[in-house]
Amino acid sequence: MEEKASLPSPACLSSPGIPHDKGSEPDPEGEIQARILKMFGYITIKGSSSRGGARVLAEMIAHIRRGRIGTFAVDGPRGPNREVKPGAVFAAKKLGVPVVPVTTSAWPSLIMGNFWDRYLLPLPFSRALVHFGEPLILDRDLSDESVQQDCLRIGSALEQLEVEADALIGRTGK
User: Fold this and answer.
1) What is the pLDDT of residues 65-112, one digit of tens each?
2) Is residue 3 part of a domain?
């Protein structure tokens, strides 16, 4: 699969509430993202799989149990790019809630950053799209094998959704 930049592609763990919570990397890029998300009503939980991951996951599970919607950047803070990590899968299985794959696209746009998680920045007056997939129902099996299978399933759903989003927006340049 070709390497490309994208807007953050989260997976939402649905719950009966409208408010959202989002895990956020405690670094300058994460702080920028946290400030933008706050303007849209998100609460960000600072940390990542490499910095306080267990605490972030526990806080996110607690927020979802209180009726909020949890949003994860499923490929984690260090990549590899577009490889789903087990945190969101574990939370969804533990709570018995579906995973809703979400992706974005924009055209025209610029690719920002030199990191593995480069961002797609929509230019002024560009067309942008947030594209939601069908909810994925996961079993409650927390074995390593089952979690890994669901990581692959979510990754495949996100890849297909991204192709659809790019086609819908007319994004041809990668």
Assistant:
1) 888 888 877 776 666 777 888 888 998 999 999 998 888 889 998 877
2) no
Task: Look at residue 84 and tell me if it is in a domain.
Answer: yes
Q: List, in sequence order, every beta strand (DSSP E) within the chain.
A: 10-13, 20-24, 43-46, 69-73, 99-112, 119-132
Single pTM value for the model: 0.77
Residue 2: other Cβ atoms inside 10 A:
4
Place of tokens 């574990």: 90
Strand partners, 102: 132
Which residues, including other chains, have CB under 8 Å from residue 13's CB and lie 6 or more apart? Answer: 64, 69, 70, 71, 72, 88, 91, 92, 95, 97, 98, 99, 100
Instruction: Kindly report whether the peptide bond that precedes residue 108 is cis, defined as omega within 30 degrees of 0.
Output: yes
- Specify the residue for token string 């018995």: 96
Residue 100 lies in a domain: yes
145: domain range? 10-169
Model confidence at 32: pLDDT above 90: no
User: Domain for residue 140, yes or no?
Assistant: yes
What tokens does 86 get? Answer: 């087990």
C-alpha 167: how far from chain center: 20
In this structure, which long-range contacts are made by residues 27-30, counting pairs with CB atoms below 8 Å and at least 24 apart in sequence? Answer: 29/113, 29/115
Q: How many domains does the chain have?
A: 1
- Residue 97 is encoded by which pair of tokens? 């809630």
